[in-house]
Every structure is written in C-alpha cells, then in structure tokens.
Amino acid sequence: MQLELSTEDEAFREEMRTFFTTQVPAEIRETVIAGRELGRDGYVETQRTLNAAGLAVPHWPVEWGGRDWSDLRRHLWLEEMQAAGVPAPLPFNVSMIGPVLAQFASQEMKERFLPATANLDIWWSQGFSEPDAGSDLAGLRTSAVRDGDDWIVNGQKTWTTLGQYGDWIFTLVRTDPEAKKQAGISMLLIDMTTPGLEVRPIQLIDGGHEVNEVWFTDVRVPGENLVGEVNQGWTMAKFLLGNERVGVAPVGTVKRNLARAKRLAGNQLNDPLLRARVAELENELLALELTALRVAAHSAGGEPHPASSVLKLKGTELQQAVSELVLDLAGPAAYSSGAGAGSDLPEWTHLAAPAYLNLRKASIYGGSNEIQRQIIARTILGL
Ligand SMILES: Cc1cc2nc3c(=O)[nH]c(=O)nc-3n(C[C@H](O)[C@H](O)[C@H](O)COP(=O)(O)OP(=O)(O)OC[C@H]3O[C@@H](n4cnc5c(N)ncnc54)[C@H](O)[C@@H]3O)c2cc1C
C-alpha cells in the first residue's frame, strides 16, 4: 500500500528532512541512532536549535511559539525528526507541562515559564507517580499544607525520569485529604533546588541511570506556584496524560531501528525464517503508521482520538519486538554488554542487551498497556 501525500505536504516533509539532517549536529544524531546515552547537553543543544527555527513546540498556541499546523504536519514533523535520529524535544517540557500551563495557568505564570520551557532553559521533571499511586494515580498521598502564603510539601514521588537533570518539577499534591480522592488534588510547580527536596537514583537492570525517587521533607513552596485553582489538579492531570499517550508511540524511531536491524543482519537475512519475521514486523509497522495517520486526522479540539490507545499499545509492542530482533541478531555476542572500547566485537552487539532490557519499560510508562487495553475495550469496542 502506498501512502500518498499532497504536493504541499510532500514539500513540507522534505523541508523537515533537510532541516533535521543538516542543522542538528551529526554527532548528536549518531549517538541517538547507535543507542548510546545522550547527556543533558545533547538534549539542550538540540532543543535550542529547534526552538530558534520555530520547530520545538509547533503544537502549542501560536502566541507561545506554536505553528498552527495540521495534525498531519505535526505527524510528519515528528516522524522525520525520529527518522533522522534527532532527539525529540523534552516531552516533560513540550508535551506535558507546556500545554498545561498554556491552557490553565495565569498570564503571569505563562510569561514566567512558557518561553523558558520551550527553549529548555528550564528542564522539567514529572512528579506524578508514587509508590502506591501509578495506574491508580488519584490515590497519591504527597501532601501540601497551607502555611501563610506558602505550601509545605511532604511525601515521595517515584520513577522520575531524568530527574537528575531537573531544574523544576511539576507535581500533583493532596491539598484536601477529606475530599473524594480526585477532588482533593492540586498541581504545584517546585524548584528542585529548594531545601528539603532530595533526588535519589534508582539502579536499573540495563545498568543505566534514567529514573529516580524524589523525596520532599517540609519543602516550602510559594503560593504563586500553584497552577490554576486549588483542588483542580485532576482536570489538568487528565489533560496532560492524554497528551502523554499520544506522544509515546515512536513510529519514526521503530522504522529507523527496523531498517537498521536489516542492515546489521547481513548474511543472516538469507535465513527464510528470519526474513519472514522481518516481513511480519514491517507489515505491523505499516499498520501502525496508518493508525498514527488516522489518529492525526481525527483528533479534535485538543482531545486525543481513542485510537491513540491502540497507537500506544501497538507502538510499544513493536518497539520491543524490534529490540528483541536486534538481540537475536547479535546472538552470543549480546553477552558482551559490559565490554569496553578494547573489545573486537562491534559496538551494536554491546548495546543490544541493554537496549532490549531498557525497552521493557515502554509497556508500563505513559499508562500501562493493560490500562490501554481497558480503554480500547470501553471506548472503541464498547464492551
Ligand atoms: C521507565 C519509567 C519511567 C517513568 N517516568 C515517570 C516520570 O518521569 N514521572 C512520573 O510521574 N511517573 C513516571 N513513571 C511511572 C509510570 O507512569 C507508572 O509506572 C505507571 O503509571 C504504572 O504504575 P505503577 O508502576 O504504580 O504500576 P501499578 O499501577 O502498580 O501496576 C502494576 C501492574 O498491574 C497492572 N494493573 C494496574 N491496574 C490495573 C487494572 N485496573 N487492570 C488491569 N491491570 C492493572 C498494570 O498494568 C501493571 O502491569 C515511569 C515509569 C517507568 C517504568
């Protein structure tokens, strides 16, 4: 099946491709494509390059740097970015807190935070999940209690991605313990250098440092850092989580990784069983791409189409399946994950196992796949 774009959209795709492959340093893109760790500076440099060209926050309101593109163009922008190995603008900034502030914050708060958020002058962390509040997010217990004009925050957040780089954290806190659980939650913005706030690393199975615990002990937060109204946090959380799910299916990345896997396979592609496995993945990827276009074409008024749950579910499954393919292609060489620069084995074989292990996370974050299945059952299948 051939996906036909209009001449204008094709030209737009070409413009994006040219920008991403010529304006973002090759060294950064090669790091992403090889699956090596990209430090804070790589993300910051890329996002500032994109922002200067008006390409960091195209889905924000125009007044704050948005481009008023069609959903299809946003899709092409993202796909070309991923295909070129350009690290996507930090999701905590551009897909999560930015749109929330643009929609719900006071004018003063927008002016204070939105330009800095778009340019990654502030690195945001997401402080939603707690040890007993993940899928059941409304069960969160971190408390914020009024003290004069300020809030005093106590509690613990967990799985805070890249919190070690965070300047500020947007949090959901319990401001009314007596109310029904969704009704007693507020959103607070907290400077991560405030006394009493501590970031503790979580050690991962792939050996990396990607997630953290964040502890709050009598952290004093100015009253003006409350987003919107007190006890209205759940409305903002739902708005944010819908956007998070849409952004989580990396069609362009999976395409790039599958094409790369075919190159890495070399002679192994003569094996008919392997060829069949690759062909099946390519077909599923095409179906995913069509679903992504369908979601892009049918999302309205900022509300994601329910098929975005299909996108999250299938997108992450495919992402994991491709990482498994690369692991199998590496064969026994995949055991070399601890090997240093002196190893005779190619670098990709060292990275195959950590990447495979790391990507187990994809079916959990952004709303676990079991939860997505429930949404699909309810809202699409009407079960
Ligand atoms: C790598 C990674 C990064 C993350 N980054 C962040 C971050 O930066 N900030 C942040 O706030 N959070 C973050 N999270 C947290 C993430 O949103 C939660 O892990 C997720 O919502 C699941 O919650 P949980 O871990 O408490 O699991 P639980 O909710 O305890 O679920 C455990 C298992 O039970 C299943 N389950 C739960 N409820 C149901 C149900 N009703 N029906 C069927 N099955 C169910 C789940 O699908 C899962 O398989 C991250 C998570 C991971 C893994």
How many helices? The count is 12
| Topology order in helix (H) and strand (E) letters | HHHHHHEEEEEEEEHHHHHH
| Lateral arrangement of strands in the main beta sheet | 1-4-5-8
Structural class estimated from helices and strands: alpha+beta
In terms of DSSP E residues, the strand content is 5-15%
Major sheet attributes: 4 strands, mixed
Shape: globular
Task: Explain the overall architecture.
The chain is an alpha+beta fold and 383 residues long. The chain is 47% helix and 13% strand. It is built from twelve helices and eight strands. Helix 8 packs antiparallel against helix 9 and helix 10 (308-330) packs antiparallel against helix 12. The protein starts with 6 loop residues before the first helix and ends with a helix. The model has no long low-confidence stretch (mean pLDDT 93). The site of flavin-adenine dinucleotide (FAD) has 17 residues, from strand 1 and helix 12.
In short:
By secondary structure, the chain is an alpha+beta fold. It is built from twelve helices and eight strands.
